Amino acid sequence: MPAPVAPQLAGLVERLIGAPLPLRIRAWDGSESGPADSPVAIIRHRRALRRLLWNPGELGLARAFVAGELDVEGDIAEGLSRFWKLARAQDLSGLSPTAADVLAAARLAARLRILGPRPKPPASEARLDGGLHTRRRDRAAIAHHYDLSNEFYEFLLDPQMAYSCGYWTRDASPTYGLADAQRDKLDLVCRKLGLEPGMRLLDVGCGWASLLIHAALHYGVSAVGVTLSSEQRAFGQARVAELGLSDRIEIRLQDYRAVGGDASPDRPFDAIASIEMGEHVGQDNYPVYAAQLQRLLLPRGRLLLQQMSRGAAGPNTAPGGGAFMESYVAPDMYMRPLGETLTFLESSGLEVVDVHSLREHYVWTVRPWLDTLQDRKAEAVRLIGDEQYRVWLLYLAGAALAFEENRMGVHQILMVRPDADGRSGLPRGRTSTLGRDPESDHGSACNGVAANGSARAALPESAR
């Protein structure tokens, strides 16, 4: 009778990493090995290990998981956390197998019939062509993630369809949850921008129009939003029309580099927001992005960016988020240390007024998304299929841990474009400049339009 597979695999892994196995392994023959009180990594098919032979590391593991050949029983976030802690403790990024290790691995692979041709990548893996951050490739990169399904994003997100870090002004409770935190985030952005009735707002990377609608309804502005996602634009336009805001909100399918060009000669805007879009413009194009936002802003106008960052040193600082993120979630994304971003922004002629970290707020934001995905698995699979479900499961579990363990950050950066004499036009008091937190009832001061509580009461049901 052949020897059980799991103990053989566990022995090889422990030899290579020089530490006890952090998870329990269950192999395709039903055998198990490893600590009994931990999540179980299920190797459903030897093809999972073949993928690792061809692509050692994160990409091979990701492909095996997405294909359903590798699975996790129990809390996937806990399993990922155990692996990450082991990687830090053992410095696995610098792992260098000896010749004897390689020989032992080869012998085991032959014995378990793992050797074979390179397996095809899962169908959901991104396949982009063309020059990096050309307009055509940027459209394809955005479509890969954001055009997945409006129905799925409605299923996953809050009713405002805010797909970015919320602002949690209370602990989660039956009376305060994700929708409230996203509303408070939208209001925080509007207050920092100093929005008032009659102002013109530009939202670069406007998503499903959550900020455009909030600013128009509660702050009396007229607004232009741009996105590269046709699905987002269609959804946003329909919602704007339903709320009777078509005369005050315009949503364009447009590259940020084309705003204000000959085809759309916009006047400069009173205020500009760009919420978690700067990660998608790339390293070489970031000065172009910063200069374009500065050019589109009136003197003394305010700009607010909400943007993710990666550390400057230590393990797992890949600016694209690592092989899995780059291949399945956000191809061509680029995150850098906060200080580098501030240098780019200041070099464009913008003055940085305030930097506000929301890192832990993202943990509290991603967890409800992950809970929805896992608790309503059958519905999610119906909407996007089993393979994409597995992509999202790994994506959200990994993101929650990355923010929780301070491997990724997110910041709101408030800037102003000084006038020709160097004046910012900002009020002297910090509270006046940055707005104030919502009142204890979590209403919002809406700069003379209406208090948020009374304004919300007057809205159609679909806007609440």
Any overview of this molecule?
- The protein has 464 residues and is α/β, with parallel strands linked by helices.
- It folds into two domains: 5-111, no CATH class; 135-463, Rossmann fold (3-Layer(aba) Sandwich), CATH 3.40.50.150.
- It has helices spanning 5-17, 47-54, 58-66, 76-90, 99-111, 135-146, 150-156, 178-192, 210-219, 230-242, 286-296, 323-329, 338-347, 359-375, 377-404, 430-434, 452-457; strands at residues 24-26, 32-33, 40-43, 70-73, 200-204, 222-227, 249-253, 269-275, 297-310, 351-357, 408-416.
- A seven-stranded mixed beta sheet has the order 7-6-5-8-9-11-10. A four-stranded mixed beta sheet has the order 2-1-3-4.
- Helix 1 packs antiparallel against helix 5 (99-111) and helix 2 packs antiparallel against helix 3.
- Residues 439-464 have low confidence and may be disordered.
**Could you give the count of β-strands?**
11
User: Mean of residue pLDDT?
Assistant: 88
Query: Helix-strand pattern, N to C?
Result: HEEEHHEHHHHHEHEHEEHEHHEHHEHH
Q: Biggest sheet, strands in spatial order?
A: 7-6-5-8-9-11-10
CATH-level-2 architecture of the largest domain? 3-Layer(aba) Sandwich
Structural class: alpha/beta
Q: Report the principal-axis shape.
A: elongated
User: In percent terms, what proportion of residues is strand?
Assistant: 5-15%
Rg result:
24 Å
Distance between the termini: 65 Å
Q: Low-confidence stretches at least 5 residues in length (pLDDT < 50)?
A: 439-464
Number of domains: 2
CATH topology term of the largest domain: Rossmann fold
| CATH C-level of the largest domain | Alpha Beta
Sheet with the most strands, sense and barrel status: 7 strands, mixed
- Share of helical residues: 40-55%
Provide a count of the helices.
17
